[in-house]
Structure formats: structure tokens, C-alpha cells
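[job 0412] stage=complex_fold ligand=2'-deoxycytidine-5'-monophosphate status=START
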Amino acid sequence: MIIAVDGPTASGKGTIAKALATHFGLPHLDTGLLYRAVGKQTVLNGGNPDDPLDAVRAVDFPDSLLDDPDLRSEASGALASRVSVHKGVRAALLERQRAFAAQPGGAVLDGRDIGTVIAPDADVKLFVTASVAARADRRHAESLSRGHAVTLDEIRADLAARDERDRNRAEAPLVEAADAILLDNSDLDAKASVAEAIRLVEEALAA
Ligand code: DC
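[job 0412] stage=complex_fold status=DONE, emitting C-alpha cells
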């Protein structure tokens, strides 16, 4: 069973994907982390994230980089969004994601293009979203709790820039798959959002 969870930054898709994986006893892959690692490795190599050749050179990042807590920072998210526009980067990460999805028993993957490109035949596709205001508030609280001193205005500007880049890039843009189930959790807290996601997936599987 493959469950695809897509959505914009700070929509709560990661929390939902993790909870679905636990609920259904499936392995989970946060595909955004792969792009974050490529972004960070590009900078570590002294490269420019907007240069396709520099970014592609960084796809061979060591697996240990995936455990670097800095990958969760806003700065790493912005770098990931920049390297993720490059066709070569997406192509290099494609097989790794498809292999994860294809493991016996299935998997839950979250990202931007899981339901459209990585696993178009997924059994269930969720598109998780929330208003910009709700997402900015969440991301702000999360950043402060991690000790990152950022203002709400900075978060809003970063969200808007990332939404714009992720939705309008030529390669595998963030778009709701035609057969995805929409979950707008603007007015739900994390617990209610997870409960609703589980309900929607169970309903889809029973149909
Ligand atoms: O989900 P995230 O915030 O960790 O993702 C960081 C960036 O990586 C996001 O802004 C765009 C890119 N990304 C992507 O292009 N495709 C994916 N499947 C996952 C992430």
C-alpha cells in the first residue's frame, strides 16, 4: 500500500505522513529532507544552489548528512527549494524515492510531487494544505521553539517565496493530483489534523 502525501511548506504534511506510517505500520520517507541535503551539500562544496551543475554535483551527499539537525532550519528549506528546480537534481533523486515506495508492503512518502511523479499509482493520495496565515504562525512557533530567532514577517516572506518557486517551476511543480483527497487543516490543530487524515485514508481504502 502506497500513501502519497503532498502539500506546501508548513502544511503539516510531515506530521500527518509520520502518523499515517505509524497507524498503518508502514515505513515513511520525508522526501523534502533529500532536497534539503542536496542544498546543504551544494553550499558545503562551495557551490551556488541556483547553478544546475553545482547542485547536481551535490546529489552524492553522504547519508550521515540526513541526520544533521540544521537540515530542519528555514535556511535549509530555502536552499532545498532552490536546488529542487533543477531537472538533474530531481532526476538523480527519483530512483531513490521510487525504490522506497516500491518496497514490499508499501510505504508513506511526503513531498511535493509524490502523487503526480514519484508514485502516480499510489493507493491513496492526500493533498494537505492550510492558509498562508495558519502556516506562517505554525512555522514561526516551531522556529522559536528550536531557538531560531526569526520574525513572523520573515517567515511569511519566506513561505510566499517558496510557494511561488515550488508551484511555478517547470519540473514536477507542486500541484494537487487530479485524484488526490484535499485536506485543508487551517482550522485544525495537529491532533485533529492527524485524526482527519487517518479517517480520510481509511474511507478511501474502504471505497
Ligand atoms: O517539505 P520540505 O519543506 O522539507 O521541502 C523543502 C523543499 O524541497 C521544498 O520547498 C521544495 C523541495 N521539494 C521538492 O521539490 N519535492 C519534494 N518531493 C520534496 C521537497
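The mean pLDDT is 95.
[job 0412] exit 0
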